[in-house]
C-alpha cells in the first residue's frame, strides 16, 4: 500500500470515529404507545422513528435514568391489570428485563429521582420505589387514597407528590432528616385531580382537575393550597411547566385542546385546538417547543413555545401517551 493511500485511509477512519460519539449523544424523544405495547425512539430533527422496543401490556408512562441510557416503563395493563415495569436499553431498543411487581397492580406514573425509580400503584393505593442497582422494589408507602395516578418530585428529591383522582386529593411525602422515613400529608383539592407538576424552582405544585375544570396551586413549603381557579377544561389530562417556569401547559382530553397559562398572573394566554385526545405533554429542555401526544390520532402535535403555534405533527405508533427526552 502506498504511503498516500495509507494516510487517506487513516484520515477517513478518524473522520468516521470522530462522528460516532456525536451521533450517540444526539437528542432523542421517547414515546410509549399504549395500544401496541411499544416504546418508540424518535429523532426530533427528522420526526422519524429510529427504533421501537417492545414493552409489557398497556404501557402508559416512561422515565429515563440520569445518564439517558435506560428507560423505565410502567405496564399499566389493558383489560387485565398490569403488574410489571419494563427496563429498556435505549441504544439497542431492547427490553433487558421485566420487573415482576407481584401483587402490586396498575403501575402508572413514574419518575427517576436520586438514582431511584418511583412509581404509583393505583390498585394498591400506594407509591413504590425500584432500585436499579439491586433490581429490587425496596420501598412501599401507602397513600390510602383512591386512584393514586401520577407522581412528581421537587428538584432536590426531598418532596414527592401524587395526584389521587378518586379521592380529590394530592398526597405530599417529605423525606425525613438524614433520609430516614417519610412524613405523609393529605391535601384536599378539586374534583378528580390527575394532571400534576412541580415548578422548576421547586416552590409550587400545580394540579388540574379532570372533573370540574379547575386548577389547584399548592405551596411546597407549607403543603397547603394557596389558590384554586377555573380554566374551563372539559377533562384535564396532563399539566407541565415550561423549563423557564413562565408558562403552564394543560391538555384537555375531551375538548382536544392545549391550554397555555401564565404562571405569574394565573391567566390564560392561549388555547390551541390540537386534535383527538391530547394527553401526555413534554417540553424540551431548551424551551423551544413542546410535544403533545394525540392518543386518538397516533401522533404528536409539535407546539412552538415562542409563538404558541402548532408547527407540525409526528407519527409515533398506536396510542401515544407518556414521553421522555434523552
CATH class of the domain at 26-142: Mainly Beta
Strand percentage:
over 45%
CATH superfamily of the domain at 26-142: YVTN repeat-like/Quinoprotein amine dehydrogenase
CATH topology of the domain at 26-142: Methylamine Dehydrogenase, Chain H
Helical fraction equals: under 10%
Structural commentary:
- This protein has 326 residues and is mainly beta.
- The protein is 7% helix and 55% strand.
- The protein has a four-stranded antiparallel sheet, with no helix packed on it. A four-stranded antiparallel sheet has the order 4-5-6-7, with no helix packed on it.
- A hairpin with a 4-residue loop joins β17 and β18.
- The longest helix has 23 residues.
- The termini are far apart.
Give a nutshell description of this structure.
This protein is mainly beta and 326 residues long.
Secondary-structure blueprint:
Layout: H1 3-25, E1 29-33, E2 38-43, E3 48-54, E4 59-64, E5 70-77, E6 81-89, E7 94-100, E8 107-113, E9 116-121, E10 126-131, E11 136-142, E12 148-153, E13 159-164, E14 169-175, E15 182-188, E16 193-198, E17 204-209, E18 214-219, E19 224-230, E20 236-241, E21 247-252, E22 257-262, E23 268-273, E24 278-283, E25 289-294, E26 299-304, E27 309-315, E28 320-325
Antiparallel strand pairs: 1-2, 1-28, 2-3, 4-5, 5-6, 6-7, 8-9, 9-10, 10-11, 12-13, 13-14, 14-15, 16-17, 17-18, 18-19, 20-21, 21-22, 22-23, 24-25, 25-26, 26-27
Q: Any key phrases for this structure?
A:
four-stranded antiparallel β-sheet; mainly beta; 1 helix; Methylamine Dehydrogenase, Chain H
Amino acid at each position: 500500500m502506498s504511503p498516500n493511500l495509507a494516510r487517506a485511509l487513516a484520515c477517513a477512519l478518524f473522520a468516521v470515529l470522530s462522528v460516532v460519539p456525536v451521533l450517540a449523544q444526539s437528542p432523542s424523544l421517547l414515546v410509549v404507545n399504549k395500544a401496541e405495547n411499544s416504546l418508540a425512539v424518535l429523532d426530533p430533527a427528522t420526526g422519524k422513528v429510529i427504533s421501537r422496543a417492545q414493552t409489557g401490556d398497556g404501557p402508559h408512562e416512561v422515565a429515563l435514568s440520569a445518564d439517558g441510557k435506560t428507560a423505565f416503563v410502567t405496564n399499566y395493563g389493558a383489560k387485565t391489570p398490569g403488574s410489571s415495569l419494563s427496563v429498556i436499553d435505549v441504544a439497542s431498543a431492547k427490553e433487558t428485563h421485566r420487573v415482576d411487581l407481584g401483587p402490586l397492580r396498575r403501575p402508572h406514573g413514574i419518575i427517576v429521582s436520586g438514582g431511584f425509580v418511583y412509581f404509583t400503584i393505583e390498585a394498591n393505593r400506594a407509591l413504590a420505589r425500584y432500585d436499579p442497582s439491586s433490581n429490587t422494589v425496596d420501598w412501599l408507602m401507602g397513600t390510602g387514597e383512591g386512584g393514586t395516578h401520577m407522581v412528581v418530585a421537587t428538584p432536590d428529591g426531598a418532596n414527592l407528590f401524587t395526584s389521587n383522582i378518586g379521592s380529590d386529593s394530592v398526597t405530599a411525602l417529605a423525606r425525613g432528616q438524614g433520609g430516614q422515613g417519610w412524613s405523609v400529608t393529605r391535601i384536599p383539592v378539586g374534583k378528580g385531580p390527575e394532571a400534576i407538576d412541580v415548578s422548576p424552582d421547586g416552590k409550587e405544585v400545580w394540579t388540574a382537575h379532570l372533573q370540574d375544570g379547575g386548577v389547584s396551586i399548592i405551596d411546597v413549603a407549607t403543603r397547603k393550597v394557596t389558590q384554586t381557579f377555573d380554566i374551563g377544561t372539559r377533562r384535564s389530562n396532563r399539566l407541565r411547566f415550561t423549563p423557564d417556569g413562565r408558562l403552564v401547559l394543560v391538555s384537555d382530553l375531551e375538548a382536544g385542546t392545549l391550554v397555555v397559562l401564565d404562571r405569574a398572573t394565573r391567566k390564560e394566554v392561549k388555547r390551541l385546538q390540537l386534535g383527538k385526545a391530547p394527553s401526555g405533554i413534554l417540553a424540551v429542555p431548551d424551551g423551544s417547543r413542546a410535544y403533545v401526544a394525540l392518543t386518538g390520532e397516533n401522533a404528536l402535535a409539535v407546539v412552538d413555545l415562542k409563538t404558541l403555534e402548532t408547527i407540525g405533527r409526528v407519527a409515533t405508533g398506536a396510542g401515544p401517551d407518556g414521553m421522555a427526552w434523552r
